[in-house]
Amino acid sequence: MGTFYDDSIVPDHLRRDFDVYDRIRELDLDLGTFDSWMGRDLKGAAICSVIFHESGLVYLSGYGYGPGHMYDDPERIKEGQDAAQYVADSMLGRLHWALSCGGEGGDLNDVLYTVKGLGMVVSTDVAFHGAPAVMNGFSKRWQSVFGGGGGAFAEDGEDSNYSGVHARSAIGGFTGRFSIEPELIVAIPPELAKAIIRNRGWIFPLPPKEAVRIRAEYQQTQGKSA
Fold first, then answer.
1. CATH topology of domain 3-8+18-37+47-225
2. Of 1, 100, 129, 141, which one has the greatest count of Cβ atoms within 10 A?
């Protein structure tokens, strides 16, 4: 585990006993590269992807994906679940680089727990009941990585940790050319959040000048470790 997690207030009976990245490798998930995530900055941006608060709360913006509106058909629900899982995978990459790009010492192992998920499921069918089932594709993937009884590593509904379990709303009835847009709030140690904010600010992607600085520092670090 990371230093920030080790020094956190998480009680012993709720501490993870696994490395999050081991699970990510077992699931064959691609977190992307520094260059792919840091090739963008806030120039001309209307919104950001991640906000860090000094309390340790981290807010991840929603991301819409999927083949189109949902309706209560098992095959269509499965398509929505797959789309929701894809968004979870993308958020894992986003959160990894948001936590680690500045070299403050944090990464996904420093996620203490997951606070809240919201899934907005596109459906023009007023009788649609499957929004929670669609959002389960997101929640189960998140639990697979961080821990939870609905995840891929649970046995008989139990996992060794539950930091992927979150309070959640799943709401249907929107319009759009995608299936679902989940958003998420997680908690990290306040000390890590403050270190990130002091070093590069509270926002990801970074402001253009900070992005240039962080990219240069990262390349210098990579050159020293090569």
1. 60s Ribosomal Protein L30; Chain: A; (3.30.1330)
2. 141
Residue 178 CA from chain centroid, whole number? 19
Type of residue found at 94: R
State pLDDT tens for residues 83-122: 999 999 999 999 999 999 999 999 999 999 999 999 999 9
Bridge-based pairing state of the strands 167-174 and 113-122? parallel
Strands 167-174 and 50-52 come out as unpaired
Residue 1 binned pLDDT confidence (cut-offs 50, 70, 90): low
- CA distances from residue 211 to 82, 135, 218 in whole angstroms, order as listed: 33, 33, 10
- Identity of residue 89: D
Reported as type and span, the H/E element at residue 191 is helix 190-200
Radius of gyration of the chain (CA): 18
- 21 burial type by CB count under 10 A (0-12 exposed, 13-18 middle, 19+ buried): middle
Cα separation, 2 vs 14, in Å, equals 16
Tokens 């090569």, residue located? 226
Q: Which two tokens stand for residue 192?
A: 């890590």
User: Hey, is 17 helix, strand or coil?
Assistant: coil
Contacts of the segment 81-84: beta carbons below 8 A, 24+ positions apart: 81/133, 81/134, 81/136, 81/137, 82/137, 83/134, 83/137, 83/178, 83/179, 83/180, 84/119, 84/134, 84/135, 84/136, 84/137, 84/138, 84/141, 84/179, 84/180, 84/182
